[in-house]
Specification:
- The chain has one domain (about 70-315).
- It has twelve helices and no strands.
- The chain has helices spanning about 1-40, 55-65, 75-90, 110-130, 135-165, 170-175, 180-185, 185-200, 210-215, 225-250, 255-275, 280-315.
- It is globular and about 70 Å long.
- It is a multi-pass membrane protein.
- This is NADH-ubiquinone oxidoreductase chain 1.
- One of its GO terms (cellular component) is mitochondrial inner membrane.
- Pfam families: NADHdh.
């Protein structure tokens, strides 16, 4: 029986990973289509019906290109960083609450915070091991940005934990049966989305890829498969952050079709922001993290903590 459970766990994980990778492929197509229409053009429309096979032709093109290595690079770290980056972003999906078997664990929020913190190191090592000034600067800026916004992410998460009194994402689903948390803690939800944008290095916070001054950021020296893996990891993280947004404050009913519609809408929001907003100034980004989000999320945390303590004392 135990072996059968393990086999089922392996199959469900495999299905999840395949679905995530296919979702990532079509998210890139959606992004190119939406950005095309925002800029009054068509986007990919030649490969397959209305360009539906474009992501697969892109994948074939990228993986069939020649892999280049910078002459003075630290080859092992340079080679394995994109692989570990993709592995970590796929590992994050284990926090998605499975209703069956041993996948729905009680500390899924803690797991998410731990794994997302580790992903910073792959970016840093990818930039450093390329032995290029541009990639090193890109990785340093990216790491500074991600670390800054992780603080506010963790504090916002703690506020939600005090509200729900659980670290299991399934409980967030149960709590929102009658009213979404979005309506109860609107400012926190707003801050969470902005921090999620900064965490995934997306516009208007794409300083790691500041084309005007850093060419392409930490991935400048990567071509072929290495670049494709970094690309996959980024879009997998976007999908995951969209899923967490839906679970935390948009009801997040995993068993309904609406969950996937909400997830698609939040992912579309990520793309819409990219097509609309210009890049932030770097000092303003840091100011936003440390002078605005940090005090605000701390105040909310203290408020929810005292609120729960009052309820606890009243019940006693």
């Amino acid at each position: 029986m135990y072996l059968f459970d393990l086999f089922l766990l392996f199959v469900s994980l495999l299905v999840l990973i395949v679905c995530v990778l296919v979702g990532v492929a079509f998210l890139t197509l959606l992004e190119r289509k939406v950005l095309g229409y925002i800029q009054i053009r068509k986007g990919p429309n030649k490969v397959g019906f209305m360009g539906i096979l474009q992501p697969f032709s892109d994948a074939i093109k990228l993986f069939s290109k020649e892999q280049t290595f910078p002459l003075m690079s630290n080859l092992n770290i340079y080679y394995f960083s994109p692989m570990i980056n993709l592995f970590i972003s796929l590992l994050l999906w284990m926090a998605m609450p499975f209703v069956t078997m041993i996948m729905s664990f009680d500390l899924s929020i803690l797991f998410f915070l731990s794994i997302s913190s580790v992903s910073v190191y792959t970016v840093m090592l990818a930039g450093w091991s390329s032995n290029s000034s541009y990639s090193l600067l890109g990785s340093l800026r990216s790491v500074a940005q991600v670390v800054s916004y992780e603080v506010s992410l963790a504090l916002i998460f703690m506020s939600f934990i005090f509200l729900v009194l659980s670290m299991n994402l399934i409980d967030f689903m149960m709590v929102q049966k009658f009213i979404w948390l979005f309506f109860l803690v609107f400012p926190l939800a707003f801050m969470w989305v902005i921090s999620g944008l900064a965490e995934t290095n997306r516009t208007p916070f794409d300083f790691a890829e500041g084309e005007s001054e850093l060419v392409s950021g930490f991935n400048i020296e990567y071509s072929s498969g290495g670049f494709a893996l970094i690309f996959l990891a980024e879009y997998s993280s976007i999908l995951f952050m969209s899923m967490i947004c839906v679970l935390l404050f948009l009801g997040g009913d995993l068993y309904s079709f609406m969950f996937f519609l909400k997830l698609t809408f939040v992912s579309f929001l990520w793309i819409w922001v990219r097509g609309t907003l210009p890049r932030f100034r770097y000092d303003k980004l840091m100011y936003l993290a440390w002078k605005s989000f940090l005090p605000c999320s701390l105040n909310y945390l203290l408020f929810f903590f005292s609120f729960k303590m009052m309820i606890f004392i009243f019940l006693l």
